[in-house]
Batch of 3 targets.
Target 1
Amino acid sequence: MAVEARTLAPPPGLKVAEELPDVIPARKPLKGFWGVVRRRPAAALGGAILLAMIAVAAFAPLLGTVDPGELAPSRRLRPPSADFWFGTDMLGRDLYSRVVYGAQVSLVVGFSVAVLASVFGLAIGLVSGTVRWIDGVVMRLIDGMMSIPPILLAVALMALTRGSLQNVVIAITLAEIPRVARLVRGVVLSLREQPYIDAAIAAGTSTPMLVIRHILPNTLAPMTVQATYICASAMIVEAILSFIGAGVPPITPSWGNIMAEGRALWQVKPTIVFFPAIFLSLTVLAVNLLGDGLRDALDPRMAKSL
Amino acid sequence: MIAGDQASPEDVEKIRAGLGLDRPYLIRFFEWVGQILSGDLGTSIFTNMPVTTMIAQRVEPTLSLMIVTLIIAVGVAVPMGVVAAWKADTWVDRSAMAFAVFGFSTPVFVVGYLIAYVFALKLGWFPVQGYKPISAGVGPWIQSLILPSVTLALVYIALIARITRAAMLDVLGQDYIRTAKAKGVGQRRILFVHGLKNAAVPIVTVIGIGVALLIGGAVVTESVFAIPGLGRLVVDAILRRDYPVIQGVVLLFSFVYVLVNLAVDLVYVWVDPRIRY
């Protein structure tokens, strides 16, 4: 129509507006690496810090460190200097090396707990959300576990066993599983009311297939977000356990252990406590920022409210 | 462990029998439950004192710490969340939420050492460590509690402020808020009477859940500030493997946690009369 109209001669004095371009050029979506950085600067920053920490932990022996357990009583409590970047502790050990090696413990604990708690929590939540009679039993058990604050549960579990990295991971995982199982069960219960699940049942899908093909994929997004928060909280709990002497053996340089050792002297030599503290806070902050970014990306409805 | 490195097998056997460790688990468990119901938490392996006495001596500092923390946290976090929701997407909101993320990420003892270093060691405003019982006067008592409470409150503030903001944003988008504005109700009244009252349920819930954080944090804060409370008691007990004491304190904390959350459920009825049980 518009084309036809234009073929008629316009009355004199009337100006015809310029034709609009056929296609309005789309705003270029922010894609690729720099797109992510521009849209979610906080999450990108968190990712960068986390990657740096992983690099520090992985390449600890190459970063100008010495043996973190090497004792040298003659150079105790040195302030930071060119030789000892962060100074030395009360046994003359190089604090920089100890802090760098400490990154390994925190990251290993954080990631293993996040993975283990997710896997077990996911399994328990799926079964409990699907099978009615198991649900009652499992949920009462979880109610009981949730009545004990997680840190306290981990502390109590550690009191029963020897302090080792493995036991720390197990203790924190057990303390975190109930929360994951609850979350997954909640998602499963709400998914079961969806019409497409009814359709799948009507089409004769067997229950295990239904869970694996139709329910599991939909629980993964909230799970992943929860996993990052668990990772952050596991690192804090690990440091607290070490700090109060119920964590990894004191001989292992973990951030919590270094701070526990520096505790007696912190009024005179605050550096011993502050360097591991800064590293720990930075790492946890990085994981939390990443978690917030993931939540915004995977769950826009939640993102708007929080 | 208790008998020392050079214990003979007979000694070990004697101690095991004395502690009743030679009898079946199930019987011991029911005996333990029976004891608890009659108000007996057992006897400490290390000091030989009844666990209830040991706990009673340590309750006051921990209780004071938690109550002062709760007051500070709620007093700061709720207004912060309300203002952040009111000024949503402005710099006020952004900085409040950035503060919340930081508060959430910084472990309790890191905050503790940092503020103790600045306010006690450098500025000398507060005592560095230690605890003064309330019987020594309210002034010294509150002074010895300010730094530990602020430390402990930070995580809690972050949590409550985030939830408050979210709940308020939800409520402020409702029609009756627009109606209130249209009929000329003042801004403050809208926020605190029309808004906050209707946003109260999630806020009260998170305050209850956050008591878990408070308990975990108290264990650490008491270590940092050398406060002789229940947290220190349980930490010392762990280091000595003094199981009756560990059991007793964990049981007490869990009991308090359950009780607080029950209280929260009861408060619902008061904030939101639509809820009935």
Target 2
Amino acid sequence: MRAHQADIWRFLRALGCDAAQADDLSQETFLGLLKAEFEERDAASTLAWLRKAARNLFLTNVRQGRVRAALNLDDVEEQWAKFAGDDGAQSKLDALRACMQGLDDRQREALQLRYGAESTRAELAKRLKLSEGGTKNLLERVKEKLRECIERRLGHAL
Amino acid sequence: MPSNERFMDVLFEEAVQEIPAPDLFEATLARANPAQRPPEVVREAVIHRLRLRWWVMAEAAAVVIVAGLVAYLVWAPKPVDKPGEPDKSWLRIVVPEAGEKQLAVEDAFSQQDFGGSWSPRTTAVAHGKTALFVVSKDGVDSLWRADGLELKPVSWVGGQWVAGSHLRFLAGNDPAYFEYRAGASAAVELLGVYRGVAMVVENKTGESFTSFGERPCSAPDGGWYFAARTQSTSEMTLAMVVENRLTLPLGDNGKPFRTTSFTVGLYTDGRRMLTPEPYLDSLWFVRGSKVEEFGIRHINEVEPPEGSIRGREVEFLQLPDCNLVMDTDGNIWRVKDGKSEWIVTEKGDRLVIDPSLPTFSDGHVYMTSAPSKESRIYRLEGTTAVEIEWKGNWPRGSVRLDWMTHFISVYAKVDGKQQYVLGVLGPDGAWPVMTEAGKLTFLNEPSIDQPYLENYNLDGRWFVRYTVDGDWRWGEVAGTTLYPLEFPGNTPSARKDFVLIENFGVLMADLAPRAGGDSPPVSHNLGWFDADGKFVPFRDNFDQAPMTPFSAVASCEGAIYVIAAESADGPVRVQRISAR
């Protein structure tokens, strides 16, 4: 469970869950595993099973109106498997954290407001004293810089 | 959005919020039926249960202590002021450059009985010469109106009072718009109050527009925009409200336009522009200057003089007669009448700018050179960027422009340390903002809870809020001079959360600290600024209504209303301050 929980939690976040929903559905996913008398063959097949179960739970919650989805879940599941690799995207996250040290104050502030405070672009623009277009440009450049830095550290394209 | 972008967003959030993916092991076991647990995890489950029991006991103890405290605060005997007779007095105040002014203060205890414990859910809002406010009692929200010294319930056209399980002010004055839900299971509708009468806003066929999104947007010159969110998808249909009529603007495909989220802003020529979210969507949409012309179209005049925007992120600045287009590398070009031209310096060199920073102020477009330790500032004339001259004695450094205002800041080394210095921009130069003592104005570096500069424009006067050494400072910037506004040192609200009010030609403030972003103020302190810019509380000059959490203040046409009670079940006092 501990080997796969980060992967499942992030996968659910990528599907559109907030942190609390991802906590809840991850637990549901693993409870499902306990109930299912699942026979573990190897880590990869366990992970694939868990992702499928998480996706189905997510879909059930979408139908019940608890969470929202505007994605093709099959595509996301397939692409997440490629993106996350065998460590649940942990190496990418570690690289990202290291790369963030290289940002200047303003870039870090933009990232904090966007992803920490979850500000809308209008709120972000007001806070950073930029136009909304300028805010978008700033964020795009910061994200591109981080993406390049991560790729350099990992030695492959994201 | 490509999925990788979505995945990266997940990592960005985790990295920035410093929330590692949680350890769900024990929490999951706590929810599992013991019979379903594999034997090797039973020991961990027992340990977890012991921990859980300890926590439950600790939490129960905490609940008992808090409940005891609450009971003491609620039921302990308190002195109660008896309602007095209606009072009328004059308020004499000295206004900078206008001498003494006299304001009439009318005061009465309302005969209106809210029927027990109540609290105003929102700060009162202006509605013509009257004020509207929401009263929340026993899970029912009702809408009230202060007119003169009378409080009246707001009614529907048929005469019934407006009451429901949810009422929240959205935007407007007269009409004023509210989110309205009749009952817990009812859909959220849009309610408009027109000259004191409430109506549900409907389209031409009499259908109301239900389940509104959380982020309604407004345009400042009439015609308000709202978006509806359906239950089954995150997409919303965009709706525009004019008076009490809803219209659904059509997109390029001739169908009602749908988006996941959007913002509306007033643009450089006064037109409204609409930006759909999410962030990576680079399309901008515009509407005409008249309501009837409203429509959504994709700005397609964006191609650069050489190459193509295909695969590039571009942004637009829509000017009255052309588009300015820039990419994230800082290349900038103008598209006019289908012709694209690079923006060049006075020497004819192609300009590369900081693409985050173009701004529009007083009819001019300004931009800065590509990010560097010493930025240049340019004003756009046609396709030529004219360099702005630095005036006055202040340091050069990296420049930040301020969107839609003339404020700038320069990040430079002063007195041996890097600091932000405040300045203003005009067509002919960039000046430092100096204190009355002739010193530069320094700003703190921005942080998450302290923006580096906020500004307010009240009737053409510019006010700024900024921090120095962790303390909030306020001031009025007239020309290039900063005149400080001073608050009592022991007033917590002097630090933040106040609302500047200008009425009767007097600059006033309502110090109204809030517990959170949308929560009602926890107290109020109303006052004005004397000739030295010093805050003078009204209560020092007349028997001001108690400014408790059960208070609401609204600045209306020709009057300021204070609606207050000393406690949730106390009598409601209405005070109306007006020009004599």
Target 3
Amino acid sequence: MNDLYKLNSDVSCCWSCKGPVIKHALFCPTCDVIQPPSDIDHFVRLGICRCYVLDLSELDRQYFHFQRLLHPDKFVCHTSKEQILSQAQVTVLNEAYETLKNPLKRAYYLLRLSGCVDIDLITKTTNSDLLMEIMEIHELLNDADTVDEIKVIEDQINAKMILCETSLEKAFVKENLDIAVELTTRLKYFKKLFEESSSRKIYITGINI
Amino acid sequence: MLLQINEPTSRSNKNDVAIGIDLGTTNSVVAVVKNGQSLVLRDEQGSGLIPSVVAYGDDGSIVVGNEARHELLSNPQIVVSSIKRLMGRGISDIKSLVGTLPFELGIAADGGMVRLKVSGKTLTPVEVSADILLAIKARAENALGSVKSAVITVPAYFDDAARNATKDAAKLAGIKVLRLINEPTAAALAYGLDNHVEGLYAIYDFGGGTFDISLLHMERGVFQVRATGGDVALGGDDLDHSIAEVFLSERTKLFGNETITSTEAKQVLSIGRMAKECLSINSCGDWVIKINDKSSRHYLDLKTFESLITNIVERTISICRGVIIDAGISVKEIKGVVLVGGCTRVPLIRRRVSEFFECNPLVDINPDEVVAVGAAMQAYALTAGSSTLLLDVTPLSLGIETMGGIVERVIPRNTPIPVAMAQEFTTYQNNQDSMLIHVVQGEREMVEQCRSLASFVLSGIPQMVAGRARICVTFVVDADGLLTVSAKEKITGIEQEVSVKPSYGLTEDEMTRMLRDSLEHAREDIKVRLFAEAKVEAIRSLLAVRAALVADGDLLSIDEKSQIHNALESVESAIRDGVIEILQTTVATLEDKTKIFAIRRINRGIHKRFD
């Protein structure tokens, strides 16, 4: 009798009232106590459908909804066990949110869900066209002396990134992983360029003070 | 027999008031939310400020606040001020401050946090802060009765050591910290909840010893920090200091070189402070300095004052610029800027801030009190429950030292907390059996340019070729912004964990000794705390079993039910009686009596799923 529930992976046991809890539930349906985070993917955790292009305001809405339920601030007067579980829940919730919010991390994540391993390795490019493109923008950046000049270059980089993102959506829908890897690689390099332009901007304004 | 069901026992104790404390460099403020209204607790003169100044008399007396500040002019050698600048600092951290800090400093034997020598005593900054907190607590208890818990604010840019030191000080003062929150976030709460401000806002917080800038998005009760930056060694003290320097150089012209004691330096600094405050309202003024019976008169007008402090003000503006770039936004997207801290009364600062942010700053709430008001609101929200949501970030990147003294970032700055991130590292030499994990905080590439938080050794790595071992280092930052680091060798499973504390903090032993020394009723306090914890746990069990009875009570026989009811009643009466041992026994009995019930409930749950 005792072992019966172990056979069924769908139902687990509430740590507090020992009653049955459907796996993935955040709270026990009987005693309403917070449960440990379950092993689900980021999309399921945030309750949004799994695709590359996301409605970011919906992502925020869902994130805030779950934060309101789970945040450690809601458990200050509860037992330390509940506080630990709340921290664990929100830690994975934050990870899910940070991953899905960021177009590059989201692409990495979808690749991983599709079974790609060693993504850092497969997104290293030997494509000389891409490298040339990057080098050119890189040199433009180094020659830029004013914030306005940098802004023009930033707009160029931004446009390229947006193009990558729209094409990525198509690639993921068609489950064309090779193209998705290629586009993710492009996005990664442009993202790096964008970060470079930001630090260049800080550097230049620093000098002008 | 009908089941009897009690009112669900409330989880928080309604009689305990939770307060909000702004533990400032120059002044501290305490506030509370009462009947839905926030209220700053004031002295008889109506002032909400408690100067963060402590005078240690030779007779062992400790005086905090205005009285202590008066001693600064007459008896400065017994007075400690601006202690916040030393929280969590080692001696090497504060070399640049030595001129501005008129204390005699001592070094801890273990190279830990700095010590001060005052009136024959050696004190840590934690103890001095605890004395200030005790005075704050006394003011609160005077007005509200018993106060046990608080939300305490810290500068957003405070590092891990300084946050831990603040928590330790509260522990010494017998205050339970519900949460450490960042000062700019607290100010935003006060504005967002009271004035219904919505959108993206900047909080410019220029206090006595620290400068913080935070970008926050506020919408329908959600306060989301987008980016934060600052300088923990830049504050109003520096403005005082630049005035004092001018006055002293004028004296040198008059009387030639003088040697000035640290006591006299304190006097000149407080004259600098008075001049700054005066020039925030008036266009000029003059002040007299008397040292070694030689008096000198010093005139200063607003224009000269502003030229003296331009560099400092521009530094704050350039930090703002960096944070805005960091957040990937433009100034135009910012709807408004909130001013916090006494320094924001300086006209030049107001002017530059409105120029830079292209809008008139918000000052509806007193900039000295707004942080405490926000903290009080959060204290209320945490204890009484609310739909407000505060989502904060790590202010500084966290990483570990790798080969060649290069920092490998594990958690980048502006990551939402709580957060856990892991990174894998490997060995450098063949058969390397241990590894030094050196945890640092900061934005620079090299270890020596960052702040060292702690280091520990992971030993017992089995013999392997260099690069084979897989050491997984995990960083966890909790909701208070405090860091814990653990390291694990994946192949063998050897594990080590540290709560990041040692470098410039206090050791557990030191804390225990201080607690023993300083709290007259330490033992009772611990007993009370232990019972309170056991009570929360017991209430959880009561609620759980009652809920289960409502849902599945029909699974029990009359006899089983009455046994469980008896057990519930014993727990309830043990809660009332207040004896911890009895409470623990009754809770254990309750658990024992409900075991069979639990098994039947699980089985029913599974059958429901299958049907």
